[in-house]
UniProtKB/TrEMBL annotation, chains A, B:
Co-factor requirement: Mg(2+)
Superkingdom of the organism of origin: Bacteria
Endoplasmic reticulum is among the record's keywords: no
Protein name: Geranyltranstransferase
Any Pfam family hit: polyprenyl_synt
Keyword 4Fe-4S: no
NCBIfam families given in the database record: FPPsyn
Organism in which the protein naturally occurs: Glycocaulis alkaliphilus
InterPro entries tied to this protein: Isoprenoid_synthase_dom_sf, Polyprenyl_synt, Polyprenyl_synt_CS, Prenyl_diphosphate_synthase
Family as reported in the entry's similarity comment: Belongs to the FPP/GGPP synthase family.
Length: 296, 296
């Protein structure tokens, strides 16, 4: 795991450098917008989604430059979603990764616009010629990213989350659907993007689909566990918010021990999907343990 | 002009029907999101942007179905921008086209998410196989739409607008840049999309670029004139807001007569760009007069 941590950090650094080059340092009267976009996208972060794109794509022989660009596009979507989720009318969070959220560091209008423009930037980056030489591959990525982030993906999941607990109740099926959409769709697409860029066959894609599905759920269950147990200094954000807001989580339904057990079960299952790839999938397996054991 | 009005209405109806089919009537707990997206995108509207795509593309021989899809994608971007611009932290408008704005009819969180998801939907529609048989054409449209809506286009222009009057002052250069970005970029892209779908040559593209540039500015000058003079029942939204908010507009800088004169001058210039196309461009010429003389 020490070596996994080093690889994750190395990948995060490369993504940050690439994003720094892709997100213009605009001058002129609109410079405030570019500044807020860069504050959100270039701040501290594990960059777990681009890491998954790079790891899956490298395993399948995809070109490095395209993987990095696709990972940056996905990270822009993730960054935009965090800005909007933190807004006062949404989750109303003042702190994210140990820093003031964008609407606190700037203002609410700037935060909304920075999220909007990061979404446009994501599609511009993904569609760009450097992502892959074949237009049809880039188009598949654009369509996949739009689906993962739209009404049947991330945005739809956040809508259900805003309506929780009324809509979720104690129904673990609805809760799973919520997180499958809210965080799972983009995590799944991060893995899928690597396979698309490698032009992988359907066996590989299906195996990675199963893997990513379980990984996304583990990610959310651990998030709920961290919120229920964590210290703000560890999580880098406000904790115990779910309980204060009366939200349904995997912990409120399954209890702490039940949620941990569920996550461990999913972790074993996620690794089984990778059997197809032998030892070349070791880094993706390590990623399961990392997500399972993370403390922030 | 009577026949122009009929053609505009016919085009608007077709766009509304196509959008109705493209924007899913989702069920499940996230149905509220789909409902808000449809409320915003399918409500009353002139659909002037898709009209421009259809008119330019038909003139140049593009396929009808692709023009309609591209027009729908552009209308989704326009609809999302109106939802977000109307938010309390932005322009704080309660009424739009004679109906409650989305954050009034629903709530603020739903409005933010509906805008976000309409942006994703726009890219998904544009990238779809039915837009054009050649992937490279669809990619060019995706890239163009992302640029027109992003930090150097619509979102960047709205950022400058939020910082007005401090940043704009009485500088007509900055004001023109603001509107060139905020409304001009998407209007220009609407015309360009028709040319891209027709795979038109560079002479035609450059002529249409000049035309669309001027049309966008006329549109904004007339907006400022309507705001300064209009009655809410005509404009379908709150008026006199610019003056109340101390905003710089073409009217505050040029005066009512000066702004009218500027718009008329631009209208003549816009029509000159169309000389290349002879009488086949009559509908685009009529569109200039329509935008110049519109009362809402």
């Amino acid at each position: 795991m020490a070596s996994f941590q080093a690889q994750l950090e190395e990948s995060a650094d490369r993504v940050t450098v690439a994003l720094d080059a892709l997100l213009a340092r605009a001058d002129g009267p609109e410079a405030r917008l570019a500044s807020a976009m860069r504050y959100a996208a270039l701040g501290p972060g594990k960059r777990i989604r681009p890491f998954l794109t790079l790891a899956a794509g490298r395993m399948l022989g995809a070109d490095e430059r395209g993987l990095l660009r696709a990972g940056c596009a996905i990270e822009c979507i993730h960054a935009y979603s965090l800005i909007h989720d933190d807004l006062p009318s949404m989750d109303d969070d003042d702190v994210r990764r140990g820093r003031p959220t964008v609407h606190i560091a700037y203002d609410e209008a700037t935060a909304i616009l920075a999220g909007d423009a990061l979404q446009s930037a994501a599609f511009e980056i993904m569609a760009g010629a450097d992502t892959h030489p074949h237009p049809s591959v880039r188009l598949a990525l654009v369509e996949g990213l739009a689906k993962a982030s739209g009404a049947r993906g991330m945005a739809g999941g956040q809508m259900i989350d805003m309506l929780s607990p009324q809509r979720v109740g104690d129904d673990i099926g609805v809760l799973t659907r919520l997180h499958r959409m809210k965080t799972g769709a983009l995590i799944s697409f991060s893995v899928e993007a690597g396979a698309v860029l490698a032009e992988a066959g359907s066996d590989a894609r299906h195996a990675l689909e199963g893997y990513a599905h379980d990984l996304g759920l583990i990610y959310q269950i651990v998030d709920d566990l961290l919120d229920a147990e964590g210290l703000p200094s560890i999580a880098g954000k406000a904790v115990n918010k779910d309980a204060r807001q009366g939200k349904t989580t995997f912990v409120t339904i399954l209890g702490v021990d039940g949620a941990r057990e569920r996550a461990r079960h999913l972790a074993a299952q996620a690794k089984e999907y990778l059997a197809l790839f032998g030892s070349s999938a070791n880094i993706l397996k390590d990623c399961v343990d990392f997500v399972l054991e993370r403390r922030s």
